[in-house]
Write a structure and sequence with these properties.
Shape: globular
Strand order of the largest sheet: 5-4-1-6-9-10-11-12
Largest sheet: 8 strands, mixed
Distance between the termini: 29 Å
Bound molecules: cytidine-5'-triphosphate
C-alpha cells in the first residue's frame, strides 16, 4: 500500500491536525488519465485496420499509478488485459470513440499519459454489410483520424500536464522531438517497433527543454516504475507553475 493511500485513510477518522496532514497528502494525489492499446477502424462489420499494440505499457503505468495512490482513469482500446486494481476503465474501439472518451475524462485530469497506438487513418465509408469477394482489385479510401494527443494538448487548462509516446523505426530522437514540439507536450517517451506486444522494452525520455535520458531496459512494469516519478514531478511542476 502506498504512502498517499495510507494518508488519505488516516485523515478520514482523525483530528484537525491529522486532517490537515491528510489534505496536504491529498494534494499530491494526481488525477491521471492514461490511454492504452490499439484502436480498430472497421472496413465492414467483420474487418478492420489496426496494429499489434497489446496495451501492456499503458496498463503497467495505470497499475503502478494506482499503487502510488493516484486516481487513475484508463481508456483502453481492444486488448486482452485485466483491469488493474483501483483503476477506472473505459473500453473503446475506434479512434473517434477514444477521442470522445478522452475529451470527457480530460476535463477532470491533471496529467495525460497517451500510451495508446491510435490508428492514423480510418475508412471513409465503412460498409454496412460484409464485403463480398470479387475477382477485381478494390480501393479503400481512408481519411486521417483526429490526433487525440494533439487535440487534448490543445485544450489543456493551465496546470495540466501532457505526456506522449512516439513509435519510431528511423531517426527516432529527431522525429520524437519534433512530435513533442508539434503536439505541445511536456515530455515524450520514445520506443521502437520491437516494443509492440513485447513484455520487455527499452525507451528513452525527452522532457521539454531538457536532454534525452535513456531508461534502462526492463519489463514494462519496471519501466512504469521508473517513469512515473518523473511524470509526477512534471505534473506537480505544471500545477504550481514551475514546469
Ligand atoms: N496519437 C494520437 N492520435 C492519433 C495518432 C497518434 O493521440 N491519431 C498519439 C499517440 O498515442 C502517441 C503520439 O500521438 O502518444 C505519437 O504517436 P505515433 O504513432 O508515434 O506518431 P504519429 O503522430 O501517429 O505520427 P507518425 O505515425 O507519422 O509517426
Amino acid at each position: 500500500m502506498t504512502r498517499f493511500t495510507r494518508s488519505a485513510r488516516a485523515s478520514s477518522r482523525s483530528g484537525p491536525s491529522e486532517q490537515r496532514a491528510g489534505r496536504s497528502a491529498d494534494r499530491s494525489r494526481l488525477r491521471i488519465l492514461i490511454t492504452a492499446g490499439p484502436t480498430r477502424e472497421y472496413i465492414d462489420p467483420v474487418r478492420f485496420l489496426s496494429n499489434d499494440s497489446s496495451g501492456k505499457m499503458g496498463f503497467a503505468l495505470a497499475a503502478r499509478a494506482a499503487q502510488r495512490g493516484h486516481s487513475v482513469s484508463l481508456i483502453a482500446g481492444p486488448v486482452a488485459l485485466a483491469t488493474p486494481e483501483g483503476v477506472q476503465r473505459v473500453d473503446v474501439t475506434s479512434a473517434a470513440e477514444m477521442l470522445r472518451a478522452a475529451r470527457r475524462a480530460w476535463k477532470d485530469a491533471d496529467l495525460l499519459i497517451m500510451a495508446a497506438a491510435v490508428a492514423d487513418y480510418a475508412p471513409v465509408a465503412p460498409a454496412r454489410f460484409k464485403l463480398k469477394k470479387s475477382a477485381h482489385s478494390r480501393v479503400l479510401r481512408l481519411a486521417p483520424t483526429v490526433d487525440v494527443l494533439a487535440d487534448l494538448s490543445g485544450r489543456r487548462r493551465v496546470g495540466q500536464c501532457v505526456i506522449g509516446f512516439a513509435l519510431e523505426d528511423r531517426a527516432g530522437r529527431m522525429n520524437a522531438a519534433e512530435k513533442l514540439q508539434r503536439k505541445g507536450l511536456d515530455a515524450i517517451v520514445l520506443n521502437r517497433p520491437t516494443a509492440i506486444g513485447a513484455d520487455v522494452s527499452r525507451v528513452e525520455l525527452l522532457v521539454r527543454g531538457g536532454r534525452w535520458q535513456a531508461v534502462p531496459a526492463g519489463e514494462k512494469p519496471a519501466l512504469a516504475e521508473r517513469l512515473l516519478p518523473i511524470f509526477e514531478r512534471l505534473a506537480r511542476g505544471a500545477s504550481t507553475g514551475r514546469a
